[in-house]
């Protein structure tokens, strides 16, 4: 069998349009394709590969658990799930953990819990969910409706009801929307897919205060910002705003599919036996790998290293921009970085991604106007410098085209 990009078009549903590059091997922050071409990975599988490719701690955990126990179902619990949950509880505001397989599933659980909590505590009238334009919370029908991007949610028939949106960082608009009928507010503590947009301190605190005033649960979607990405274990810790429910996935497993919803005992009790579940959620293989990833990231050395590496990233990006003037702003937190294209290149962010691939660099976009970088949290300085040298060649090729 010939396995190439053409085979994709024959056998795969056409909802993706992947590159012609097919990676076959990775180590650290470098990846090699079928032809043996080397790429430096500034994409990290969209903020998933927090420890790069084939990190020894993750490989070791996978091999060890793979020879013990893969799956049980939630008719029984298992040791890796309990250990990971205890570590997550100890490191965060939370007291209870629910495991799923993805960010969308974690968000689905969070939204269902919020609705059930409000129903039990206040009655059926308290069902409104507020979220933010350009937000992204997953692709299930509930989460994609809560996400504030019509391009993803329209065209599938009637949507789940009582969901409203306002602009991120517009506290006045939010205050006008929220009421005692609001059961939950879902927000990213830094918008990822929406363009790498940080909240102002006033906005984050204002949303928290208004949720408290109206007895609405504040849900932080930390699927992309969590597990060290911003330089804190979770981004809420840098904002000094504590949510009622937090969701985490992507980097939680370092590349192995796992998600989690964490919350307080008081709120968690409303997901009684039988109200929600997942066949694979919390399986021992995923939890063993995630425990290794969590242990490795949640150290002062790695978290402080994120801040130092981010400073170098921003310095080198600024030097490139001083030469070519293609970006109007470089923004983000930690190693979740967005370079906003200038007016001349508006709508053309993907051209920089494509040119980067041609020069041996993997990157991302966040919408049509932002080039996004989410590399490994432990990427060596030499790889940052080499990757940026390749990105400069990519920028030069776009400018001269």
Automatic annotation (TrEMBL):
It catalyses: N(2)-acetyl-L-ornithine + 2-oxoglutarate = N-acetyl-L-glutamate 5-semialdehyde + L-glutamate. Coiled coil: none annotated. Its cofactor is pyridoxal 5'-phosphate. Keywords: Amino-acid biosynthesis, Aminotransferase, Arginine biosynthesis, Cytoplasm, Pyridoxal phosphate, Transferase. Pyridoxal 5'-phosphate binds at residues 103-104, 136, 221-224, 279. Pathway: Amino-acid biosynthesis; L-arginine biosynthesis; N(2)-acetyl-L-ornithine from L-glutamate: step 4/4. May also have succinyldiaminopimelate aminotransferase activity, thus carrying out the corresponding step in lysine biosynthesis. PANTHER family: AMINOTRANSFERASE CLASS III (PTHR11986), SUCCINYLORNITHINE TRANSAMINASE (PTHR11986:SF113). This is Acetylornithine aminotransferase.
